[in-house]
Design brief:
This protein has 2 domains: 213 residues, Spore Coat Polysaccharide Biosynthesis Protein SpsA, Chain A; 72 residues, no CATH class. It is 42% helix and 16% strand. The protein contains 13 helices and 11 strands. The strands form 2 sheets. It has a 7-stranded mixed sheet, sandwiched between helices. It has a 4-stranded mixed sheet with strand order 5-11-7-8. Helix 12 packs antiparallel against helix 13. The chain is globular, with a radius of gyration of 20 Å.
Length: 309
């Protein structure tokens, strides 16, 4: 019997850096780590930035890292104040040059074992720089709901919404390095933006990169009282969105993201974000360019006319 030759390029698995932001996540983080490290078809290195915690999260992760060399704990810093700044720190401080793909991870979800391999394959096959997907939200009661994010992308949707939960995001190396450079250059401005997933999508689209949103859900997206934003599903989610609108948070984030991404020189963007009736009428006139989902277009028009955006 002759020898079977295996092509080295075929056998080699893509190297993926998974960036995980942790804070008081001891209750769920072990399960998340298990599902990340069980990924098939890729070579995973897990980088973790731990915000100072009080529930034993840091002690557990340091012990876990002693038994698995794929887990790298970044030096502890002062409290970041929010998950976004923790992710900014991860992207800026991790050496990304050794990895073909970079993925973001929350501390409390559950990943299908094919999650990363599918994302990497889609990025390569479609010639895009970034990937996200639908997710399946689940609650302690046992309820589950697929959150659909893969509606057709619109010309300026990135200035008014993210591509979906950041825990689904995967980037190819060159885009991740460009994002790293961008975050370092505008770190002071970026630190005021707490919607990191929205910012990353806006940076991608506004700088000419391509983004793929997958209809397949390979993440179970845990919902609980400590979610920073969460699924925004049902009555509670609607009330949460309304409170954010009334507080001015949504407009403030849109303005900061547009400015930081260099979009305020675009006459249409400046018109859309203008205060008063000029901006409201511009939103109504161009609404089909601003949100992917028809329902969300209707709501944005309504909130604009009511002066809530």
């Amino acid at each position: 019997m002759g020898l079977v030759m295996i092509d080295a390029d075929v056998a080699r698995q893509p190297k993926v850096a998974v960036l995980l932001a942790a804070y008081n996540g001891r209750r769920w983080i072990a399960e998340q780590l298990d599902t990340i490290l069980a990924q098939r078809g890729v070579e995973v290195t897990l980088f973790i930035s731990i915000d100072p915690s009080t529930d034993g999260t840091a002690a557990y992760l340091h012990e876990r890292a002693k038994t698995d060399t794929r887990i790298k704990i970044l030096p502890e810093l002062a409290p970041s104040g929010c998950a976004a700044r923790n992710f900014y720190r991860l992207i800026c401080d991790v050496n990304l040059h050794s990895f073909e793909f970079i993925s973001l991870a929350d501390q409390d979800d559950c990943w299908n074992t094919k999650k990363l391999a599918r994302a990497c394959e889609i990025i390569q096959r479609n010639g895009v720089e970034a990937y996200s997907s639908d997710v399946t939200a689940f609650w302690p009661s046992g309820r589950e709901k697929k959150l659909e994010k893969a509606q057709p992308q619109q010309e300026l949707d990135f200035l008014f919404e993210a591509a979906g939960p950041g825990c689904t995001y995967v980037f190819e190396q060159q885009f991740a390095l460009a994002l790293q450079q961008f975050l370092n250059r505008y770190r002071a401005e970026v630190d005021t933006i707490i919607a990191h997933d929205w910012l990353f999508y806006a940076f991608c689209r506004s700088h000419g990169y391509q983004w793929f949103i997958d209809t397949i859900s390979l993440i179970r997206y845990r919902q609980h009282g400590r979610n920073e934003l969460g699924a925004n599903s049902g009555v509670a989610g609607a009330l949460r969105r309304l409170r954010l609108l009334r507080s001015g948070w949504y407009r403030s984030q849109a303005e900061q993201i547009a400015a930081t991404c260099g979009m305020m020189n675009n006459p249409l963007v400046a018109e859309l974000l203008a205060q008063g009736w000029r901006g409201r009428l511009a939103v109504v006139q161009h609404i089909n360019k601003l949100r992917r989902r028809v329902r969300d277009r209707f709501l944005l028009v309504l909130f604009s006319l009511l002066g809530l955006f």
